[in-house]
Specification:
The structure holds two protein chains of two kinds. Chain A is α+β, with helices and mostly antiparallel strands. Helix content of chain A is 34%, strand content 19%. Chain A has 18 helices and 20 strands. In chain A, the strands form six sheets. In chain A, strands 3, 4, 5, 15, 16, 17, 18, 19 and 20 form a nine-stranded mixed beta sheet that branches. In chain A, strands 10-12-11 form a three-stranded antiparallel beta sheet. In chain A, a hairpin with a 6-residue loop joins strand 6 and strand 7. In chain A, helix 6 packs antiparallel against helix 7, helix 9 crosses helix 10 and helix 14 packs antiparallel against helix 17. The C terminus of chain A is likely disordered. Chain B is an all-alpha fold. Chain B folds into two domains: 116 residues, no CATH class; 196 residues, Orthogonal Bundle (MetI-like fold). Chain B is 74% helix and 0% strand. Chain B contains 13 helices and no strands. Chain B is globular, with a radius of gyration of 24 Å. Classes of the chains: A alpha+beta, B mainly alpha. At the A-B interface, helix 3, helix 5, strand 5, strand 17 and helix 12 of A face helix 2, helix 3, helix 7, helix 11 and helix 12 of B.
Chain lengths: 568, 346
Amino acid sequence: MLSRTVILAIVVIVILAVGIGAAVVLLRPAPAASITLWYNSTGHYGDTEPAVAQLIKAQIEATGKVTVNLQSEDWASYRADFAKGNLPFFLLGWYPDYFDTDDYVSPFYSTAGAQSEGAFYTNATMDKWITNETASVDPTVRGAYFQQLQTQSAKDVPYIPLWTTNAHVVYDSDITGVFLHPVVFKYFIMNKPGFDHITVGTTDSPTSFDPALAYDYFSTNIINQVFDTLLVYEPTNGTLLPGLAAQVPTVGNGISADGKTYTFQLRPGLTFTDGSSLNATTVKRAIQRVISLNLQGSAEFLLEQVAALGKTPTIDTPNCPGPCTTIVFHLLQPVGLFNQIMAFSVAAPVPWWYNQTGAQQDVVNGNVKVTGDGPYSLASLTSNQQYVLQKNTNYYNPGLYSAFGIPTIPILSKIIINRYSDSSSLKLAIQTHQINMAYRTLNPTDLTALQGSAASLNLKVDIGTSPQIRFLVFNVKTAPFNDVRVRQAIAYAVDRSSIVSNVFHGFAVTLYSMVPPGFFGPDYSSPVFQTAYGSSPDVAKATSLFSAASLAISLSMFQTDALERNWL
Amino acid sequence: MPKQGSLLAYTVSRLILALPTLLVLLTVLFLVLRILPGDPISALEAGRRSTRDIAADKARLGLNLPWWVQYPVYLSQVFSGNFGTSLGQIYLGQPVLQVILQKLPATIELATGAMLVATLVGVGTGIIAGSRRDRPPDIVVRLYGSIIWVIPVFWLGLMLQLVFAVGLHWFPPNLRYEPDPVFFPPPSHLTGLYTLDSLLEGRIDKLAISLAHLALPSLTLGLVLSGFFTRTVRANLLRTINSDYVEAARARGIRERYIVYRYAFRNALIPVVTILGLQFAILFAGAVLTERTFSWDGMGTLLLTSIDSRDYPMIQGTVIVYAIIIVAISVVIDVINGFIDPRVRY
């Protein structure tokens, strides 16, 4: 039988052992946790992406709490992986589909939009605000919703806005009428005295020139030279003007009081370049075609979902047969930005003979089959090599911009666009005057070099704002980013000015909201991230938030490692 | 039946052996593409459409099926000459074979130009070095052979562009032809080879423009390849110069120069024909980078853009055509070797 003293001693030893063990576990210094930042390695956003990732890594690691591993993938894998939710933290960019502030909000903060961006963020209140701002045409009402949406976005931080890129164009100094328009780069208002054509170099590749399929900048920009839409834009800004329509519908004059019916009056006697007629039934058929085809990778959802036309749109053509100039769209719900969508390339009418069972091939048996009604026609194309735009001598509205001091369009007879493989080839081409204009994309280093030698080379370099935004995305369903404190800590740690000056040599602008300032109509942008996190990094606050969230981060070490193993 | 050891029997056996080589290449290509993460539909649509829509599109194209179901379909299509239609952004819906036939002449023109430069420079420098062993020309050429072989193609291309296009304005910096078809209409499309088409059209001015554009890319790729020729020709020339029959010729008082060109050089060239075949594979790999540097719209550029958009049919088609060309060249080189050196037939 053990003595009471021995039993007491054993109890004390056990208690001490447990206490010391617990103290060791609880008081040991926290291991530096690791997170992985993903970026695209194949130049989808130019060749600056690795430098941006390195800078962000250094900025987050400055807190001393986290180490950041950098991982990259080619664009095809990248897109597939972020959509599947495989990337917990990554760099992404956005170029708007339609030119309304909503396109910087619903694709990111609506539940469906956030899923396609790989953020998987969901907030019922945000969804409700988005539905409400979409339905309204009242700038005051919309402004209030956009402010609430942006303020909440800075609290929840599913994304961190970083910068907007600058648009740029380099061209012979005697070319006039060059404007870096936020929506359409208008070749048809350019002139080069003594010449009837210009050659342009680009690094862009098109997908298709069928409005039912095209959904990338270069293709839609060419479509905008070759096809007119019901409404078009002013020469230098995003204000709408009548295009094929005789006037821009307004509430009471084309838009019903409930915002669910839009009536457009077409100009009479419209034709396509092949002579076939363009009337209300052609417009109706073209819109129905886009929705019924619903082609892979197209902007069909803009008509069906965003413009609320639905799967089987209700479109009336009350004065057909006859003048056939009135077209009435019945929407499933009020959509305040319907006019903007009618100015996007996806809504461009196409001739009756266009393929109704699939995308119209651009070239059939060597003949170009892209037929529009715009200032230019596509005279020839060699895929990924050369595209020739030729003046449409029967353009219905040469005086479109006469009120803006441009008496007639198009001015030049031909625009010859050649494709170059990368920025350095494009720079060489403009430097040696192989081409008259380089639009786009030159990297910041090449652009700086050209700026320096522009005068001696008789070139002009224009830098303008671009509606493209760049940002960080968190998959909010994945640890440690499911902890809002970790996302907020990173928001405190990032230094946008450093990225803009060191990587982009000043050819970018810091961005403090997913809604960039001053592009389309009323400016709803509010620098909510600047208000919430300051305009320069706050390492102390970032560190303290990382510390508060340290349990979540240490868990993430295992999660991150597990993910990386999956890639082997 | 052809007699064993005859050139015909040898040729037939090489052709039969080419088939399994092709089959292995096709299988490896198929597997590699499907092991890689990403697929054409996700590359086209991810981030813009729902995962359900993406899954439906994959199912429609059979991309969701297991590889052992896709494989026999793939093989039967390839062997029936049906390479399918493109699934990538740029060539979406266009027949793969049609696109390849558009781009192939550009690469053939570049490869021919580069091989010409490589052979002329490589053989020339090899002879200079081999016939002047350990003297200054030999040392310089050996140094050249080593350095040029390790220079990255894109770097050399960029340097040549800066010197000859930007600095001296001797040659255009890139593209296959002048970018302005109004002032400089390209030759009419007969073979797709701009130089040949210019000649067929009887237009010397167009030929001059085509050659000017061909100069820098050919020089870039040709110079890099020439290093290997230099070293091989030099080594073989040294071996033959020191052989007994050359010694015998010297003993008969024949002049050294005559010995080098008449006896040693001809025999030294036999192994060069063999490496010529091997060089073609390297040449096509180098052409991918050269084409990118010079915005040369050929098979290399096509391959790069197709890989980036996971355009399976286009990647498969391009690599199959590459494989067929290289296997065909190997067979031709084997037959030439069999013709000039009967020992290899046995």
